[in-house]
Amino acid sequence: MTDTSLIARLRDSDLWWSFSRSPLTVAAALVTLLFVVGALFAPWLAPHDPFDPRTLKLLDAFTPPAWTADGRPTYVLGTDNQGRDVLSAIMYGGRISLLVSLAAIALSVTFGVGLGLAAGFHGGWVDTLIMRIADIQLTVPAILIALTLDGVARVALPSTVHDQFAVWVLVLSIGFANWPQFARVTRATTLAERSKDYVSAARIIGISGPKIALKHVLPNALGPVLVIATIGLALAIIAEASLSFLGVGMPPTQPSLGTLIRIGNAFLFSGEWWIVIFPALALMVLSLAVNLLGDWLRDALNPKLR
């Protein structure tokens, strides 16, 4: 199949029709794409390297945005207390936030879908055990689980080593906290699919249970999982920012958006408002755009709304 035919099929699909006729969704997609491109190509697109000590100028600290009376054209959104360009810091910080969030959601999906598929397909004590564990975890706030796991990592690892592995500690913390919702949705879909004729036919011709679950049942469960993963990505971005804001996330030497907000919050009432306002706006706009995409995908994949 050629690329041209793939593009033609995409343009003729219901998803593209729904997407192209929703200006809000198109705007959200463009905003998300802008953030992703800015994060991926930050070393080439950012005006400055905010994390290279050789390029920092302490004399430029607390420079206001360029459009103010004391602003400078070289610092469009101003600088922070260390002379770092706020715009460049947001681009580099967004890179870390997106990396942590995407990796955490990938971990949640892999872990949750696997357990949900096993629970729904096998049933019995396997289903009871997995779902009771998920129910217990759902009673505990996800951020509390993430704080607990991060605290355990801080006790188990030396401070210098913890800073080096801070990204992966955050990924494990957020990813482990969010797997139950993926397990529950996958289990529900699996319970509906395993009683259908094509599963019975696969059993009759001798296909093994794990192969039936992975090759036949799992593809039918990916639609709802994709919707939850998109919405969960926005929640993961906020969770990472919350942990970093509380001081248990990324270190100041490798700040994410949450770390930038925590640093800027100390100077909000001293007049340097731009240090916290612009990272907070970036976090809000990114989370809102991803959330809008998730809402559109949920409606687009719902056959009752077609």
From TrEMBL:
It comes from the Bacteria. The chain crosses the membrane at residues 24-46, 96-121, 133-153, 165-186, 221-246, 273-297. It is a multi-pass membrane protein. It is found in: Cell membrane. GO terms for biological process: transmembrane transport. One of its GO terms (cellular component) is plasma membrane. InterPro entries: BP-dependent_transpt_permease, MetI-like, MetI-like_sf, OppC_N. Its main location: membrane. Pfam families: BPD_transp_1 (PF00528), OppC_N (PF12911). Residues 94-294 form the ABC transmembrane type-1 domain. Keywords: Cell membrane, Membrane, Transmembrane, Transmembrane helix, Transport. Belongs to the binding-protein-dependent transport system permease family. This is ABC transporter permease. It comes from Vineibacter terrae.
